[in-house]
Amino acid sequence: MELKRLIFHIDVNSAFLSWESVDRLEKDPDALDLRTIPSAVGGDEKARHGIVLAKSTPAKKFGITTGEPLVHALRKCPDLTIVPPHFDTYLRKSRQLMDVLSDYTPDMEKFSIDEAFLDMTSTIHLFGSPITVANQIRERVSKELGFTVNIGIAPNKLLAKMASDFKKPDLCHTLFAHEIEKKMWPLPIGELFFVGHSARKKMENIGIHSIGDLAACNVSYLTRLLGEKYAILIHNYACGIDNDPVEEREPLNKGYGNSTTLSHDIEDLDSANQVLLSLCETVGARLRQDHVLCDCVCVEIKDWDFHSQSHQTTINNPTDSTSIIYETACRLLKDFWDRTPLRLIGVRTTKITEEGYCQLNLFESEQVRKRKEMEKAVDHIRNKFGTDSVKRASFLKDDRIVDHVSGKEKHYH
């Protein structure tokens, strides 16, 4: 008899903010817990540019949202404490989480740095009932790692992800087929995964305000409004239909890349470049960690209408430099993006070469050589002495690049 699918979605509550707090408390037990005050992880507080990457629960009460410009957040809460991101810390905490989750099933998909899907179909009988096991995982993460997670329990990935977004923090929720009508259909249409601002406005204009309204809508009518591929996808989602398997991402040796699904549509180049920067920082640090170089940079985007695009270019000389990868990614995005609101941005590097086999570039400037050595030195010092041992300047808005490696963020490839 075929087993019924059972999927867990694990989502860290305010991941970057939580991990920042845990790291500070590990170093100094008397440190102020950022989770208890209005605080945010973002860019440069003094320059007031960058975006909110994560916010505390007290900050949320001021209406501060992930993805909004820091200058807007500070208007809402002038006393907001802003701390810079330390992506190497976040990657380390993420690995600790994944190590715990791997104890429960070999069928795991790391969806992002702070999210994972577990296919518990074949292993749940080893541990107990679904809700009991989910609470065991939640409590273990809190006790052993010091931060909290929400866990969604469902028969597929879409419903599990929706369930994990129910009331937070530190809770487990179920969303099985018989619960969709009561738990999911009354939610606003914008709460459905992959429904962005523009699509929401279009649907609201014709009277579709809840997920239940969408589920009841004729697909052919939606197709005329939103396009066939996207209309079918979100209609299936509204009905709780998702057959996507839980599977590992492609091996790292084929390339190094990061992508992130944005909590809000991005429509301006400055905000998009801020996201690119955080993604490129991870790519550069991981290339250097593995002593490899890339010869090709690719930028991938997906807009609110589910249309995907990607452009790539070859670099003149193989590199592991964050700055060069970022500069290249920014040029690519500027060239091919028509400013249609974005829901996903990704950076991928390919044509990987081992460092020792790379031909020496005789025309490489002294400035470039110093920058590369500096980036490697920063990686080494941070790995040895901790995240806060070295801090760098951010990229300036007038396109002059100041060497900057914040660390590591989401990695999918």
TrEMBL record:
GO biological process: DNA repair; DNA-templated DNA replication; error-prone translesion synthesis; SOS response
Cofactor requirement: Mg(2+)
Active site residues per record: 115
Enzyme Commission code(s) on record: 2.7.7.7
CDD domains with a match to the protein in the record: PolY_Pol_IV_kappa
Domain of life: Bacteria
One Gene Ontology term of the molecular function aspect: damaged DNA binding
Functional summary from the UniProt entry: Poorly processive, error-prone DNA polymerase involved in untargeted mutagenesis. Copies undamaged DNA at stalled replication forks, which arise in vivo from mismatched or misaligned primer ends. These misaligned primers can be extended by PolIV. Exhibits no 3'-5' exonuclease (proofreading) activity. May be involved in translesional synthesis, in conjunction with the beta clamp from PolIII.
Protein name: DNA polymerase IV
